[in-house]
Amino acid sequence: MNFAFYGQADQHPLIRRLEGIADLSDEEKQAILALPLTVKVFEADTDVVREKDRPSDCCLIVNGFVCRYKLLPDGRRQIMGFYIPGDIPDLQSLHLHVMDNSIGTLVTASVAMIPHESLRKMLRRHPRLADILWRETLIDGAMLREWMVGIGRRTAYQRVAHLLCELQVRLKMIGLGKEDGYELPVTQNELGDALGLSTVHVNRVLQDLRGHGLIVLRGGALRIPDLKALWQVAEFNPSYLHLKES
Amino acid sequence: MNFAFYGQADQHPLIRRLEGIADLSDEEKQAILALPLTVKVFEADTDVVREKDRPSDCCLIVNGFVCRYKLLPDGRRQIMGFYIPGDIPDLQSLHLHVMDNSIGTLVTASVAMIPHESLRKMLRRHPRLADILWRETLIDGAMLREWMVGIGRRTAYQRVAHLLCELQVRLKMIGLGKEDGYELPVTQNELGDALGLSTVHVNRVLQDLRGHGLIVLRGGALRIPDLKALWQVAEFNPSYLHLKES
DNA sequence: CGAAGGCTTGATAGACCTCAAACACAGTGG
DNA sequence: CCACTGTGTTTGAGGTCTATCAAGCCTTCG
Protein backbone atom coordinates (compact mmCIF):
# COMPACT_ATOMS: atom_id res chain seq x y z
CA MET A 1 0.00 0.00 0.00
CA ASN A 2 2.56 2.48 1.12
CA PHE A 3 6.35 2.79 1.29
CA ALA A 4 8.89 5.54 1.20
CA PHE A 5 6.02 7.77 1.94
CA TYR A 6 8.11 9.53 4.54
CA GLY A 7 10.22 11.62 2.19
CA GLN A 8 12.52 12.85 4.92
CA ALA A 9 13.97 10.05 6.93
CA ASP A 10 13.37 12.01 10.11
CA GLN A 11 9.65 11.93 9.55
CA HIS A 12 9.49 8.17 9.60
CA PRO A 13 8.08 7.38 13.02
CA LEU A 14 10.34 4.41 13.61
CA ILE A 15 13.47 6.36 12.72
CA ARG A 16 12.44 9.15 14.98
CA ARG A 17 11.89 6.77 17.84
CA LEU A 18 15.09 4.78 17.35
CA GLU A 19 17.18 7.91 17.17
CA GLY A 20 16.08 8.57 20.71
CA ILE A 21 17.93 5.49 21.91
CA ALA A 22 20.74 4.97 19.37
CA ASP A 23 22.56 6.58 16.44
CA LEU A 24 21.59 5.43 12.99
CA SER A 25 23.81 5.49 9.92
CA ASP A 26 22.42 6.74 6.64
CA GLU A 27 22.48 3.25 5.32
CA GLU A 28 20.46 2.01 8.24
CA LYS A 29 17.94 4.78 7.80
CA GLN A 30 17.60 3.84 4.16
CA ALA A 31 16.97 0.26 5.13
CA ILE A 32 14.19 1.34 7.46
CA LEU A 33 12.69 3.62 4.83
CA ALA A 34 12.66 0.72 2.43
CA LEU A 35 10.48 -1.38 4.71
CA PRO A 36 7.09 -2.03 3.14
CA LEU A 37 4.36 -0.52 5.26
CA THR A 38 0.67 -1.24 5.02
CA VAL A 39 -1.07 1.47 6.93
CA LYS A 40 -4.40 0.62 8.51
CA VAL A 41 -6.67 2.79 10.55
CA PHE A 42 -8.30 1.31 13.64
CA GLU A 43 -11.16 2.91 15.48
CA ALA A 44 -10.97 3.58 19.18
CA ASP A 45 -11.29 0.51 21.40
CA THR A 46 -10.39 -2.01 18.76
CA ASP A 47 -7.90 -4.84 18.92
CA VAL A 48 -4.93 -4.62 16.61
CA VAL A 49 -3.62 -8.02 17.70
CA ARG A 50 -5.19 -10.51 20.05
CA GLU A 51 -3.85 -12.94 22.61
CA LYS A 52 -3.28 -16.36 20.99
CA ASP A 53 -2.88 -14.83 17.53
CA ARG A 54 0.11 -15.87 15.46
CA PRO A 55 0.84 -12.67 13.62
CA SER A 56 2.83 -12.53 10.40
CA ASP A 57 3.40 -8.79 10.73
CA CYS A 58 4.54 -6.38 13.36
CA CYS A 59 2.56 -3.22 13.92
CA LEU A 60 4.26 0.14 14.03
CA ILE A 61 2.19 2.87 15.61
CA VAL A 62 2.02 5.85 13.28
CA ASN A 63 -0.65 7.84 14.99
CA GLY A 64 -2.72 7.58 18.14
CA PHE A 65 -2.41 5.72 21.42
CA VAL A 66 -2.57 1.98 21.86
CA CYS A 67 -2.08 -0.27 24.86
CA ARG A 68 -0.95 -3.76 25.68
CA TYR A 69 -3.32 -5.66 27.92
CA LYS A 70 -4.45 -9.01 29.20
CA LEU A 71 -7.93 -10.08 30.16
CA LEU A 72 -8.67 -12.18 33.22
CA PRO A 73 -11.23 -14.96 33.09
CA ASP A 74 -13.80 -12.79 34.84
CA GLY A 75 -13.40 -10.01 32.32
CA ARG A 76 -11.25 -7.66 34.33
CA ARG A 77 -8.35 -6.18 32.47
CA GLN A 78 -4.76 -5.33 33.21
CA ILE A 79 -3.11 -2.82 30.90
CA MET A 80 0.63 -3.34 30.82
CA GLY A 81 1.84 -0.51 28.69
CA PHE A 82 0.86 2.48 26.62
CA TYR A 83 2.36 2.78 23.16
CA ILE A 84 2.76 5.89 21.09
CA PRO A 85 3.85 6.74 17.55
CA GLY A 86 7.15 5.09 16.70
CA ASP A 87 6.60 2.14 19.03
CA ILE A 88 6.24 -1.44 17.82
CA PRO A 89 4.28 -3.00 20.64
CA ASP A 90 4.31 -6.50 19.19
CA LEU A 91 7.92 -6.62 18.11
CA GLN A 92 8.13 -9.68 20.34
CA SER A 93 6.04 -11.59 17.82
CA LEU A 94 9.16 -11.78 15.66
CA HIS A 95 10.49 -14.42 18.06
CA LEU A 96 7.50 -15.38 20.18
CA HIS A 97 5.13 -16.86 17.73
CA VAL A 98 1.99 -16.94 19.83
CA MET A 99 0.85 -13.65 21.33
CA ASP A 100 0.53 -13.80 25.09
CA ASN A 101 -1.24 -10.47 25.28
CA SER A 102 -3.43 -8.25 23.17
CA ILE A 103 -2.76 -4.86 21.64
CA GLY A 104 -5.73 -2.52 21.45
CA THR A 105 -6.35 1.09 20.49
CA LEU A 106 -7.40 3.71 22.98
CA VAL A 107 -8.35 6.23 20.31
CA THR A 108 -8.52 6.11 16.55
CA ALA A 109 -5.04 5.09 15.46
CA SER A 110 -3.04 4.58 12.29
CA VAL A 111 -0.93 1.50 12.41
CA ALA A 112 1.63 0.39 9.83
CA MET A 113 1.87 -3.35 9.37
CA ILE A 114 5.36 -4.61 8.55
CA PRO A 115 5.73 -8.23 7.41
CA HIS A 116 7.98 -10.31 9.62
CA GLU A 117 9.74 -11.43 6.47
CA SER A 118 10.78 -7.92 5.52
CA LEU A 119 11.94 -7.20 9.04
CA ARG A 120 13.95 -10.39 9.24
CA LYS A 121 15.58 -9.70 5.91
CA MET A 122 16.51 -6.22 7.04
CA LEU A 123 17.94 -7.48 10.31
CA ARG A 124 20.05 -10.11 8.58
CA ARG A 125 21.51 -7.48 6.34
CA HIS A 126 22.01 -4.90 9.11
CA PRO A 127 22.98 -6.71 12.28
CA ARG A 128 23.37 -3.46 14.11
CA LEU A 129 19.70 -2.74 13.52
CA ALA A 130 18.97 -6.12 15.00
CA ASP A 131 20.86 -5.07 18.09
CA ILE A 132 18.98 -1.80 18.22
CA LEU A 133 15.59 -3.48 17.96
CA TRP A 134 16.63 -6.00 20.57
CA ARG A 135 17.58 -3.05 22.71
CA GLU A 136 14.18 -1.59 22.03
CA THR A 137 12.44 -4.70 23.37
CA LEU A 138 14.69 -4.61 26.40
CA ILE A 139 13.66 -1.06 27.12
CA ASP A 140 10.07 -2.18 26.88
CA GLY A 141 10.93 -4.67 29.59
CA ALA A 142 12.58 -2.00 31.69
CA MET A 143 9.43 0.13 31.54
CA LEU A 144 7.44 -2.88 32.58
CA ARG A 145 9.66 -3.41 35.60
CA GLU A 146 9.40 0.17 36.72
CA TRP A 147 5.66 -0.03 36.29
CA MET A 148 5.63 -3.15 38.40
CA VAL A 149 7.47 -1.43 41.22
CA GLY A 150 4.71 1.12 41.17
CA ILE A 151 1.87 -1.36 41.30
CA GLY A 152 3.58 -3.47 43.92
CA ARG A 153 4.95 -0.87 46.25
CA ARG A 154 3.78 2.66 45.55
CA THR A 155 0.59 4.34 46.69
CA ALA A 156 -2.10 5.10 44.15
CA TYR A 157 -1.14 8.75 44.32
CA GLN A 158 2.46 8.10 43.39
CA ARG A 159 1.51 5.55 40.79
CA VAL A 160 -0.65 7.96 38.86
CA ALA A 161 1.97 10.68 39.10
CA HIS A 162 4.64 8.30 37.90
CA LEU A 163 2.69 7.29 34.84
CA LEU A 164 2.08 10.91 33.92
CA CYS A 165 5.81 11.61 34.22
CA GLU A 166 6.76 8.67 32.05
CA LEU A 167 4.37 9.66 29.30
CA GLN A 168 5.65 13.22 29.38
CA VAL A 169 9.21 12.08 28.69
CA ARG A 170 8.26 9.58 26.02
CA LEU A 171 5.96 11.95 24.18
CA LYS A 172 8.44 14.77 24.27
CA MET A 173 11.09 12.50 22.88
CA ILE A 174 9.13 11.83 19.72
CA GLY A 175 8.08 15.42 19.31
CA LEU A 176 4.56 15.18 20.71
CA GLY A 177 3.96 16.80 24.02
CA LYS A 178 5.94 19.53 25.64
CA GLU A 179 7.77 20.26 28.85
CA ASP A 180 4.61 21.46 30.52
CA GLY A 181 1.98 19.11 29.21
CA TYR A 182 0.51 16.91 26.52
CA GLU A 183 -2.61 15.34 25.11
CA LEU A 184 -3.72 12.38 27.19
CA PRO A 185 -6.54 10.58 25.39
CA VAL A 186 -7.02 8.02 28.13
CA THR A 187 -10.12 7.59 30.24
CA GLN A 188 -9.96 7.27 33.98
CA ASN A 189 -11.21 3.76 33.59
CA GLU A 190 -8.26 2.89 31.41
CA LEU A 191 -5.86 4.53 33.82
CA GLY A 192 -7.31 2.31 36.50
CA ASP A 193 -6.82 -0.81 34.42
CA ALA A 194 -3.25 0.26 33.85
CA LEU A 195 -2.41 0.99 37.45
CA GLY A 196 -4.37 -1.73 39.16
CA LEU A 197 -6.93 0.72 40.57
CA SER A 198 -10.65 1.21 40.35
CA THR A 199 -12.03 4.01 38.24
CA VAL A 200 -13.44 5.69 41.27
CA HIS A 201 -10.14 5.75 43.02
CA VAL A 202 -8.31 7.07 39.99
CA ASN A 203 -10.77 9.91 39.95
CA ARG A 204 -10.10 10.75 43.57
CA VAL A 205 -6.37 10.60 43.13
CA LEU A 206 -6.53 12.89 40.12
CA GLN A 207 -8.48 15.34 42.19
CA ASP A 208 -5.85 15.19 44.88
CA LEU A 209 -3.14 15.88 42.33
CA ARG A 210 -5.19 18.78 41.06
CA GLY A 211 -5.78 20.03 44.54
CA HIS A 212 -2.06 20.06 45.18
CA GLY A 213 -1.52 22.08 42.03
CA LEU A 214 0.54 19.32 40.43
CA ILE A 215 -1.59 18.86 37.33
CA VAL A 216 -4.32 20.59 35.37
CA LEU A 217 -6.39 18.06 33.52
CA ARG A 218 -9.37 18.99 31.38
CA GLY A 219 -10.79 16.85 28.68
CA GLY A 220 -7.81 15.12 27.18
CA ALA A 221 -5.40 17.96 27.84
CA LEU A 222 -2.89 17.58 30.64
CA ARG A 223 -0.88 20.53 31.86
CA ILE A 224 1.96 20.13 34.33
CA PRO A 225 2.75 23.46 35.94
CA ASP A 226 5.84 22.22 37.77
CA LEU A 227 7.37 19.13 36.28
CA LYS A 228 10.10 18.86 38.88
CA ALA A 229 7.54 18.84 41.63
CA LEU A 230 5.62 16.04 39.96
CA TRP A 231 8.82 14.07 39.51
CA GLN A 232 9.51 14.43 43.19
CA VAL A 233 6.09 13.24 44.23
CA ALA A 234 6.35 10.28 41.87
CA GLU A 235 9.96 9.55 42.81
CA PHE A 236 10.43 9.56 39.06
CA ASN A 237 13.83 8.98 37.56
CA PRO A 238 13.90 8.53 33.80
CA SER A 239 17.06 6.45 33.73
CA TYR A 240 15.06 3.28 33.21
CA LEU A 241 14.00 4.61 29.82
CA HIS A 242 17.61 4.32 28.68
CA LEU A 243 17.60 7.41 26.53
CA LYS A 244 20.71 8.22 24.56
CA GLU A 245 21.80 11.18 26.63
CA SER A 246 21.77 9.27 29.87
CA MET B 1 39.28 -19.93 34.87
CA ASN B 2 37.00 -22.59 33.56
CA PHE B 3 35.64 -23.74 30.20
CA ALA B 4 34.50 -26.94 28.66
CA PHE B 5 34.08 -28.09 32.18
CA TYR B 6 30.71 -29.52 31.24
CA GLY B 7 31.96 -32.56 29.35
CA GLN B 8 28.50 -33.45 28.11
CA ALA B 9 26.79 -30.62 26.35
CA ASP B 10 23.57 -31.49 28.09
CA GLN B 11 25.06 -30.75 31.46
CA HIS B 12 25.86 -27.18 30.58
CA PRO B 13 23.15 -25.20 32.36
CA LEU B 14 22.64 -22.74 29.53
CA ILE B 15 22.26 -25.48 26.96
CA ARG B 16 19.79 -27.26 29.15
CA ARG B 17 17.76 -24.12 29.55
CA LEU B 18 17.81 -23.09 25.91
CA GLU B 19 16.77 -26.52 24.78
CA GLY B 20 13.58 -25.92 26.69
CA ILE B 21 12.63 -23.11 24.33
CA ALA B 22 14.40 -23.95 21.04
CA ASP B 23 16.34 -26.64 19.19
CA LEU B 24 20.10 -26.29 19.09
CA SER B 25 22.41 -27.67 16.42
CA ASP B 26 25.60 -29.45 17.43
CA GLU B 27 27.58 -26.53 16.17
CA GLU B 28 25.61 -24.15 18.31
CA LYS B 29 26.09 -26.32 21.35
CA GLN B 30 29.81 -26.36 20.70
CA ALA B 31 29.82 -22.60 20.50
CA ILE B 32 28.11 -22.38 23.87
CA LEU B 33 30.48 -24.92 25.38
CA ALA B 34 33.39 -22.84 24.14
CA LEU B 35 32.26 -19.78 26.06
CA PRO B 36 34.75 -18.87 28.76
CA LEU B 37 33.14 -19.12 32.19
CA THR B 38 34.48 -17.72 35.41
CA VAL B 39 32.53 -19.35 38.17
CA LYS B 40 32.08 -17.40 41.37
CA VAL B 41 30.27 -18.39 44.52
CA PHE B 42 28.11 -15.80 46.24
CA GLU B 43 26.78 -16.18 49.74
CA ALA B 44 23.10 -15.83 50.46
CA ASP B 45 21.75 -12.29 50.35
CA THR B 46 24.55 -10.82 48.31
CA ASP B 47 24.37 -8.68 45.21
CA VAL B 48 25.72 -10.16 42.01
CA VAL B 49 25.10 -6.97 40.06
CA ARG B 50 23.83 -3.64 41.32
CA GLU B 51 21.61 -0.96 39.89
CA LYS B 52 23.73 1.67 38.10
CA ASP B 53 26.55 -0.79 37.46
CA ARG B 54 27.94 -1.03 33.95
CA PRO B 55 28.78 -4.72 33.80
CA SER B 56 31.27 -6.15 31.34
CA ASP B 57 30.01 -9.68 31.88
CA CYS B 58 26.70 -11.47 31.98
CA CYS B 59 26.01 -13.84 34.81
CA LEU B 60 24.74 -17.32 34.16
CA ILE B 61 23.21 -18.99 37.18
CA VAL B 62 24.79 -22.38 37.71
CA ASN B 63 23.44 -23.21 41.11
CA GLY B 64 21.07 -21.65 43.60
CA PHE B 65 18.31 -19.07 43.44
CA VAL B 66 18.74 -15.40 42.64
CA CYS B 67 16.27 -12.60 42.16
CA ARG B 68 15.96 -9.35 40.29
CA TYR B 69 14.88 -6.42 42.43
CA LYS B 70 14.71 -2.70 42.81
CA LEU B 71 14.94 -0.67 45.99
CA LEU B 72 12.72 2.31 46.69
CA PRO B 73 14.10 5.44 48.31
CA ASP B 74 12.61 4.44 51.66
CA GLY B 75 14.29 1.06 51.58
CA ARG B 76 11.33 -1.05 50.58
CA ARG B 77 12.01 -3.58 47.91
CA GLN B 78 10.21 -4.96 44.90
CA ILE B 79 11.41 -8.30 43.59
CA MET B 80 10.64 -8.65 39.90
CA GLY B 81 11.71 -12.15 39.13
CA PHE B 82 13.26 -15.31 40.49
CA TYR B 83 16.06 -16.87 38.47
CA ILE B 84 17.25 -20.43 38.56
CA PRO B 85 20.11 -22.43 37.06
CA GLY B 86 20.43 -21.83 33.34
CA ASP B 87 19.00 -18.33 33.50
CA ILE B 88 21.01 -15.23 32.62
CA PRO B 89 19.19 -12.56 34.58
CA ASP B 90 21.31 -9.69 33.31
CA LEU B 91 21.41 -10.66 29.66
CA GLN B 92 19.92 -7.23 29.07
CA SER B 93 23.26 -5.68 30.01
CA LEU B 94 24.51 -6.75 26.60
CA HIS B 95 22.48 -3.92 25.08
CA LEU B 96 21.47 -1.78 28.05
CA HIS B 97 24.74 -0.57 29.39
CA VAL B 98 23.57 0.75 32.74
CA MET B 99 21.74 -1.66 35.02
CA ASP B 100 18.31 -0.41 36.00
CA ASN B 101 17.86 -3.10 38.63
CA SER B 102 19.94 -5.29 40.89
CA ILE B 103 20.48 -9.02 40.91
CA GLY B 104 20.92 -10.63 44.30
CA THR B 105 21.20 -14.12 45.68
CA LEU B 106 18.55 -15.69 47.87
CA VAL B 107 20.77 -18.57 48.95
CA THR B 108 24.39 -19.45 48.35
CA ALA B 109 24.74 -19.54 44.58
CA SER B 110 27.32 -20.38 41.94
CA VAL B 111 27.32 -17.92 39.10
CA ALA B 112 29.33 -18.13 35.91
CA MET B 113 30.50 -14.81 34.55
CA ILE B 114 30.67 -14.62 30.75
CA PRO B 115 32.40 -11.61 29.19
CA HIS B 116 30.20 -9.54 26.93
CA GLU B 117 32.95 -9.72 24.35
CA SER B 118 32.81 -13.49 24.15
CA LEU B 119 29.05 -13.47 23.94
CA ARG B 120 29.03 -10.87 21.22
CA LYS B 121 31.60 -12.77 19.22
CA MET B 122 29.55 -15.92 19.51
CA LEU B 123 26.35 -14.15 18.46
CA ARG B 124 28.02 -12.61 15.43
CA ARG B 125 29.19 -16.00 14.34
CA HIS B 126 25.90 -17.76 15.10
CA PRO B 127 23.03 -15.41 14.30
CA ARG B 128 20.51 -18.05 15.19
CA LEU B 129 21.85 -18.10 18.73
CA ALA B 130 21.38 -14.35 18.79
CA ASP B 131 17.74 -14.92 17.90
CA ILE B 132 17.40 -17.53 20.60
CA LEU B 133 18.89 -15.30 23.27
CA TRP B 134 16.71 -12.45 22.11
CA ARG B 135 13.81 -14.83 22.46
CA GLU B 136 15.02 -15.65 25.93
CA THR B 137 14.89 -12.00 26.97
CA LEU B 138 11.42 -11.73 25.46
CA ILE B 139 10.24 -14.64 27.56
CA ASP B 140 11.63 -12.88 30.59
CA GLY B 141 9.41 -9.98 29.61
CA ALA B 142 6.43 -12.27 29.21
CA MET B 143 6.91 -13.60 32.73
CA LEU B 144 7.11 -10.07 33.98
CA ARG B 145 3.81 -9.22 32.33
CA GLU B 146 2.04 -12.20 33.79
CA TRP B 147 3.46 -11.34 37.18
CA MET B 148 2.16 -7.82 36.74
CA VAL B 149 -1.34 -9.05 36.04
CA GLY B 150 -1.15 -10.83 39.33
CA ILE B 151 0.01 -7.86 41.33
CA GLY B 152 -2.44 -5.54 39.64
CA ARG B 153 -5.55 -7.62 39.55
CA ARG B 154 -5.36 -10.87 41.48
CA THR B 155 -5.98 -11.45 45.16
CA ALA B 156 -3.05 -12.27 47.39
CA TYR B 157 -4.26 -15.85 47.56
CA GLN B 158 -4.16 -16.28 43.79
CA ARG B 159 -0.90 -14.40 43.48
CA VAL B 160 0.93 -16.74 45.80
CA ALA B 161 -0.57 -19.77 44.14
CA HIS B 162 0.39 -18.46 40.72
CA LEU B 163 4.00 -17.94 41.69
CA LEU B 164 4.23 -21.44 43.09
CA CYS B 165 2.83 -22.83 39.83
CA GLU B 166 5.28 -20.89 37.70
CA LEU B 167 8.26 -22.04 39.69
CA GLN B 168 7.10 -25.64 39.48
CA VAL B 169 7.05 -25.53 35.68
CA ARG B 170 10.35 -23.73 35.36
CA LEU B 171 12.17 -25.96 37.83
CA LYS B 172 10.84 -29.12 36.30
CA MET B 173 11.95 -27.94 32.89
CA ILE B 174 15.57 -27.77 33.94
CA GLY B 175 15.44 -31.01 35.84
CA LEU B 176 15.09 -29.65 39.36
CA GLY B 177 11.79 -30.11 41.04
CA LYS B 178 9.14 -32.65 40.25
CA GLU B 179 5.51 -32.84 39.35
CA ASP B 180 4.48 -32.79 42.98
CA GLY B 181 6.91 -30.38 44.57
CA TYR B 182 10.30 -28.76 44.80
CA GLU B 183 12.79 -27.02 47.04
CA LEU B 184 11.76 -23.43 47.66
CA PRO B 185 14.57 -21.62 49.46
CA VAL B 186 12.68 -18.37 49.74
CA THR B 187 11.57 -16.70 52.96
CA GLN B 188 8.06 -15.39 53.42
CA ASN B 189 9.55 -11.94 53.57
CA GLU B 190 11.02 -12.39 50.11
CA LEU B 191 7.77 -13.77 48.79
CA GLY B 192 6.12 -10.63 50.06
CA ASP B 193 8.63 -8.40 48.32
CA ALA B 194 8.01 -10.33 45.15
CA LEU B 195 4.24 -10.21 45.27
CA GLY B 196 3.74 -6.76 46.69
CA LEU B 197 2.52 -8.10 50.03
CA SER B 198 3.59 -7.80 53.65
CA THR B 199 5.32 -10.72 55.31
CA VAL B 200 2.46 -11.13 57.70
CA HIS B 201 -0.07 -11.41 54.94
CA VAL B 202 2.03 -13.89 53.00
CA ASN B 203 2.10 -16.01 56.09
CA ARG B 204 -1.67 -15.95 56.40
CA VAL B 205 -2.18 -16.74 52.76
CA LEU B 206 0.19 -19.69 52.96
CA GLN B 207 -1.80 -20.99 55.88
CA ASP B 208 -4.97 -20.67 53.87
CA LEU B 209 -3.41 -22.61 51.03
CA ARG B 210 -2.31 -25.24 53.53
CA GLY B 211 -5.72 -25.29 55.09
CA HIS B 212 -7.29 -25.98 51.73
CA GLY B 213 -4.88 -28.85 51.17
CA LEU B 214 -3.32 -27.17 48.15
CA ILE B 215 0.24 -27.12 49.43
CA VAL B 216 2.41 -28.69 52.09
CA LEU B 217 5.24 -26.37 52.99
CA ARG B 218 7.80 -27.19 55.64
CA GLY B 219 11.20 -25.64 55.84
CA GLY B 220 12.21 -25.08 52.27
CA ALA B 221 10.36 -28.08 50.91
CA LEU B 222 7.14 -27.51 48.99
CA ARG B 223 4.84 -30.36 48.15
CA ILE B 224 1.88 -29.93 45.85
CA PRO B 225 -0.58 -32.77 46.35
CA ASP B 226 -2.82 -31.79 43.45
CA LEU B 227 -1.13 -29.64 40.84
CA LYS B 228 -4.24 -29.27 38.71
CA ALA B 229 -6.16 -27.94 41.67
CA LEU B 230 -3.48 -25.36 42.36
CA TRP B 231 -3.47 -24.33 38.71
CA GLN B 232 -7.17 -23.80 38.87
CA VAL B 233 -7.02 -21.65 41.96
CA ALA B 234 -4.22 -19.60 40.44
CA GLU B 235 -5.86 -19.44 37.03
CA PHE B 236 -2.47 -20.60 35.87
CA ASN B 237 -1.80 -21.19 32.20
CA PRO B 238 1.81 -21.82 31.27
CA SER B 239 1.53 -20.59 27.71
CA TYR B 240 3.21 -17.32 28.62
CA LEU B 241 6.39 -19.27 29.33
CA HIS B 242 6.60 -20.09 25.61
CA LEU B 243 7.95 -23.58 26.07
CA LYS B 244 8.82 -25.54 22.98
CA GLU B 245 5.92 -27.94 23.14
CA SER B 246 3.35 -25.18 23.22
C1' DC C 1 -33.87 16.44 22.86
C1' DG C 2 -32.52 12.06 24.26
C1' DA C 3 -28.87 8.79 24.66
C1' DA C 4 -24.35 7.38 25.76
C1' DG C 5 -20.09 7.67 27.70
C1' DG C 6 -17.27 9.54 30.92
C1' DC C 7 -16.69 12.07 35.31
C1' DT C 8 -17.88 12.98 40.12
C1' DT C 9 -19.64 12.15 44.76
C1' DG C 10 -21.21 9.60 48.93
C1' DA C 11 -21.51 5.60 51.82
C1' DT C 12 -20.05 1.17 53.11
C1' DA C 13 -17.14 -2.87 53.11
C1' DG C 14 -13.12 -5.52 52.80
C1' DA C 15 -8.43 -6.73 51.71
C1' DC C 16 -4.25 -5.90 53.31
C1' DC C 17 -0.90 -3.22 56.31
C1' DT C 18 1.41 -1.97 60.57
C1' DC C 19 2.75 -2.65 65.09
C1' DA C 20 3.90 -5.79 68.62
C1' DA C 21 4.91 -9.85 70.75
C1' DA C 22 5.48 -14.78 71.11
C1' DC C 23 7.30 -18.93 69.20
C1' DA C 24 10.38 -22.24 66.76
C1' DC C 25 14.63 -23.71 65.31
C1' DA C 26 19.52 -23.81 64.05
C1' DG C 27 24.08 -22.32 65.18
C1' DT C 28 27.42 -20.55 68.68
C1' DG C 29 29.99 -20.56 72.69
C1' DG C 30 31.01 -21.52 77.36
C1' DC D 1 24.91 -29.88 77.80
C1' DC D 2 22.68 -25.75 78.25
C1' DA D 3 22.06 -20.84 77.81
C1' DC D 4 22.19 -17.39 74.10
C1' DT D 5 21.47 -15.36 69.77
C1' DG D 6 19.59 -14.61 65.31
C1' DT D 7 16.59 -15.42 61.72
C1' DG D 8 12.31 -16.78 60.19
C1' DT D 9 7.45 -17.97 61.31
C1' DT D 10 3.14 -17.32 63.62
C1' DT D 11 -0.65 -14.83 66.04
C1' DG D 12 -3.44 -10.86 67.56
C1' DA D 13 -5.37 -6.29 67.28
C1' DG D 14 -6.27 -2.22 65.31
C1' DG D 15 -6.08 0.93 61.27
C1' DT D 16 -6.04 2.44 56.36
C1' DC D 17 -6.03 2.32 51.66
C1' DT D 18 -8.70 1.04 48.07
C1' DA D 19 -12.80 -1.54 46.13
C1' DT D 20 -17.68 -1.81 45.42
C1' DC D 21 -22.20 -0.16 44.89
C1' DA D 22 -25.21 3.36 43.62
C1' DA D 23 -26.58 7.55 42.05
C1' DG D 24 -26.28 12.13 39.99
C1' DC D 25 -23.98 15.20 36.68
C1' DC D 26 -21.81 16.84 32.55
C1' DT D 27 -20.53 16.86 27.71
C1' DT D 28 -20.89 15.33 23.16
C1' DC D 29 -23.39 13.91 19.30
C1' DG D 30 -26.86 12.28 16.31
Structure summarized in a few sentences:
Two copies of one chain form a homodimer. With 246 residues, the first copy, chain A, is of the alpha+beta class.
Helical content band of chain A: 25-40%
Count of individual domains of chain A: 2
| CATH class term of the largest domain in chain A | Mainly Beta
If interface size is counted as residues with C-beta under 8 Å from the partner's C-beta, which chains form the largest one? A-B, 43 and 43 residues
Strand content of chain A: 15-25%
The stretches of 5 or more residues of chain A where confidence is low (pLDDT under 50) are: none
Topology record:
The structure is a homodimer of 246-residue chains.
Chain A: H1 13-18, H2 26-33, E1 38-42, E2 47-49, E3 57-63, E4 66-71, E5 77-83, E6 102-105, E7 109-115, H3 116-125, H4 127-153, H5 156-173, E8 181-183, H6 188-195, H7 199-211, E9 216-218, E10 221-223, H8 227-234
Antiparallel strand pairs in A: 1-7, 2-6, 3-7, 4-5, 4-6, 8-10, 9-10
Helix pairs in contact in A: 3-4, 5-7, 5-8, 6-7
Chain A binds a DNA duplex (30 and 30 nucleotides) through residues 155-156, 187-189, 197-201, 203-204, 207, 219.
Describe this structure in words.
2 copies of one chain form a homodimer. Chain A is of the alpha+beta class and 246 residues long. In chain A, helix 5 crosses helix 8 (227-234). Chain A has helices spanning 13-18, 26-33, 116-125, 127-153, 156-173, 188-195, 199-211, 227-234; strands at residues 38-42, 47-49, 57-63, 66-71, 77-83, 102-105, 109-115, 181-183, 216-218, 221-223. In chain A, a hairpin with a 5-residue loop joins strand 4 and strand 5. The first copy, chain A, starts with 12 loop residues before the first helix and ends in a 12-residue tail after the last helix. In chain A, the strands form 3 sheets. A 4-stranded antiparallel β-sheet of chain A has the order 2-6-4-5. In chain A, strands 1-7-3 form a 3-stranded antiparallel β-sheet. A 3-stranded antiparallel β-sheet of chain A has the order 8-10-9, covered by helices on one side. Chain A binds chain B through residues 68, 70, 72-73, 76-78, 80, 92, 95-96, 98, 100-101, 124, 127, 130-131, 134-135, 137-142, 144-149, 151-154, 195-196, 235, 239-240, 242, 246, and chain B through 68, 70, 72-73, 76-78, 80, 92, 95-96, 98, 100-101, 124, 127, 130-131, 134-135, 137-142, 144-149, 151-154, 195-196, 235, 239-240, 242, 246. The structure holds a DNA duplex (30 and 30 nucleotides).
